[in-house]
Amino acid sequence: MNELQVALAHANRLALLVLLVGLFVRGRAQLCWSFPAYALAILVGNSLATLWPDRFYTPSFWVLKQGTYDILKMAVALELAWRAFAAFPGALRTARLALLALLAVSTLALAALTPSSTYADLWTWEPGTATAAIWLLTATALLVVWYQLPVHAWPRAIMLGFPPYLLVFVLALDLLGRHGWPALHAWAGILDSAAYLVLLFFWNRVVWRCDPAEAAAAAVDKAA
Amino acid sequence: MTLELLLSALGCGLLCYTLGRYNRAVILQRWEFVLSAPEKQAIDALRQRMAVDSTLTRKALEAAARAREASRPPDALTVLRVALSVLEEAGADRLTRLRAMSVYSRMVRAISPLPPPSAAPFKDPSLRATASAAGLVHRVLVGTSERFRLWLLVLGLGVRIVLRGGRLAADAAGREPQQQRHWQEFSREVDDFEALDACHLNAFAALVASLAAVDRGGRLRLWERIVGDAG
Question: In chain A, where are the structural domains located?
Answer without folding.
Answer: 14-209
